[in-house]
Amino acid sequence: MQTMPIPRPPLVSFTVPMVAALGAFFGLFVGIANGSGILGLAIGAVAGAALAYGLASYVEDKRTGRLVTIAVFAIVGLILGGVAGLVVLAVIGFVLGWAVYWLDRGTYRSTIPPYAKSGEVLWHNTYKFICGLIFFFLIAPILTIIPLSFNAENFFTFTPEMLSFDPDGYSLKHYRDFFGTSDWQLALRNSLIIAPFATLISVSLGTLAAIGLSQTHVPFRRPIMAILISPMIVPLIISATGMFFFYSTLGNWLEANLGFSQSFVGYVKIILAHGVLGVPFVIITVTATLVGFDDSLTRASANMGAGPVRTFFKVQMPLILPGVISGGLFAFITSFDEVVVVLFVGAAAQKTLPWQMFIGLREQISPTILAVATILVVISILLLTTVELLRRRSERIRGMSPG
Amino acid sequence: MKLKTLMLMTGAAVAITPMAVAQDMADSMTIVSWGGAYQNSQQKAYAEPYMEMHPEVDIVWDESSNEAVAKLRAMNEAGNITWDLVDVVASDAIRLCDEGLAMEIDPDDLLAEAPDGTSAEDDFGDLLVSDCFIPQIVYSTTFGYRTDMVPEGVEPPDDICDVWDLETYPGQRSLEKRPINNMEWALLCDGVAKDEIYDVLETPEGQDRALAKLDEIKDEVVWWSAGADTPQLLADGEIFMGSTYNGRLFSVIEEQDQPVGMMWDAQVFDLDGWIIPAGLPEDRLARVKDFVNFATDTQRLADQAAYISYGPARKSSAPLVGEHAELGIPMGPHMPTAPENSENIFVYNYEFWADYRDDIDAKFQAWLAQ
């Protein structure tokens, strides 16, 4: 960024009050939790001010200063509030210790050009803070369920044992419940049957549709596009009601005329319904990749004697593959997460994971749902990481190969 | 290509199977119930023994009793009835029967006699509230309270009007988000005699009076809609007391070991049981009839009480009620019908609510939104 040394901001009129304010903010929360917000606020402010003055004036080495702060806060926390107090105050100590050096050494200006005025610096850091908050509010609800899923009780409650990190407050019983109950296993199996087939249908139909619709000579391109994308826009409950009646008739016909069994027809109905729901995602992502696709390649291919099918698989497909894969991923997740259409179209034999979670939440608030949610979060993270790694790998390989 | 071949092959394979084992009774049955501990008790007491006797039968459970009426209507309209046996509360059974969505039954023909030869009709007695309804259990809606939140030096609540006594028993209450039960309790605590409640509730003034009584605690009420809500709120300590089904409270107290007590005073009895959807194909109907005959006999109803604290609907089952299957505690004292629990009971009036439900619902919802 920049190499010019940043002047140290004034200690007493800048760093100390800022850290004091931050301390007061934390103090307010701790105070409210313990009965007196005002007292907490005051103690927090004094502690913050003292810390800022002490560290900035007497402890030159950042690392030592921060570690000492965390240790002191943790010990005070342990004395006042046991293990829970230790964790809370250690976190506060970490933030305060970091803030002192961040402010005092002028690091807060390091990513901004030196000519920026204080208002601009303030806005830049406020902006970063807001981004951090948005991130926090997106992630925090997902993170809270993870410790709760290890609850030893059968309720969605942080028990006192859990808060004091007593091993007795935690257990794997909800995970055992998930892997040991036939209901959950049936639901998992059904989801794993339905989602891949639905994805296959969405991806093949969606890709073809996107390629067709990107040709300029196709008549009524926009209306057709709008109709194909409508499952994403129409409220799901409306699609679901319509699908219920449509697929009931279709299912009855299949059973009566082709002699398929009820359960097989049940799967077919949901797979088709989910296939339809996934198509718009594939169309949108593939259309986006096709924008960058050079049509002279297909003409060149045709010129060299390749038929349209060969051209598609050998020339077009490899180039638009990233769009197809991410569309497929969306289609898979849509089917895997979908509950409304399944509730309408499916029969109990085709109960999927979201259905089982839905009824579990309504009839019996059991943390097994949280265990399942945790597993799904982990799987999603792994899935997305894998796809991203593959994408980078293919980009790297393509970047090295000629053409 | 591959997918198509695979699907065709699977289809063909599945299509062949039923022909090979074609017989009088269907081999698979979809039973609709409430999920949770209640469905578990049905699985243990009815379905598992039945499947032991008939290993070829496959039972699928659908936890849709809550919306059974709406779903049966839709299924009927679409001509695609996927359910074989549906567990509903008595009032829903009456509605389904009136609409012709449930099959009318002859108790003496369909259901087993009591061991002493009493006919099924006499054994179930008054509980056969509809021509389509096959009763299973008597359950009650009553209050549970946090024993550790009772103020010091005060007796635990034992009177329905303690719900309104915010001074002696501070803290939030949870009540069901519908007028049924709440209106009756409110009038009872407003000084109306028990046998005059439905006469008072018929009049708009009476309804306003009940709502005015509920107004006294409205600020302190958390409204619940699922049976699992009150147990969760009690376990969290968010409420001091709340109404729910007695079986849920039993589970919180005895199985989950939470500091919760039962109030029992002015508990409201209600019935739950089976209906068979109208218009089932022959083979499926034959299977369902066979299952129902087995699942509602005297011993099976008594067995269910080993898993959940609901009273069996047959008179002849009561003496057979034993111990909890896992905890080994006698279940008799936990039944809503036990004499010490049913000193002051309130009998829910189906006919009244069938006639006034829509009006009072609208009024209640408007009051809630105020």
From TrEMBL, chain A:
Q: Where in the cell is it found?
A: Cell inner membrane; Cell membrane
Keyword Membrane attributed: yes
- GO CC terms of this entry: plasma membrane
Q: Which UniProt keywords apply?
A: Cell inner membrane, Cell membrane, Membrane, Transmembrane, Transmembrane helix, Transport
Q: Where are the transmembrane segments?
A: 12-31, 38-58, 70-103, 127-150, 192-213, 225-247, 267-293, 319-349, 369-390
Q: Which PROSITE patterns match?
A: ABC_TM1
The residue ranges of the ABC transmembrane type-1 domain are 188-387
InterPro entries (alphabetical): MetI-like (IPR000515), MetI-like_sf (IPR035906)
Q: Which SUPFAM superfamilies match?
A: MetI-like (SSF161098)
Q: Which Gene3D superfamilies match?
A: MetI-like
Pfam families, per this entry? Answer: BPD_transp_1
- What are the recorded Gene Ontology BP terms? transmembrane transport
Topological type in the membrane: Multi-pass membrane protein
The similarity annotation says: Belongs to the binding-protein-dependent transport system permease family.
Q: What is this protein called?
A: ABC transporter permease
UniProtKB/TrEMBL annotation, chain B:
Alphabetical UniProt keywords: Signal
Q: Which Gene3D superfamilies does the UniProt entry name for this protein?
A: Periplasmic binding protein-like II
Checking Pfam families in the record gives: SBP_bac_8 (PF13416)
Where does the record locate the signal sequence feature?
A: 1-22
Q: Which SUPFAM superfamilies match?
A: Periplasmic binding protein-like II
Q: What is this protein called?
A: Extracellular solute-binding protein
- Which species does the entry assign this protein to? Psychromarinibacter sediminicola
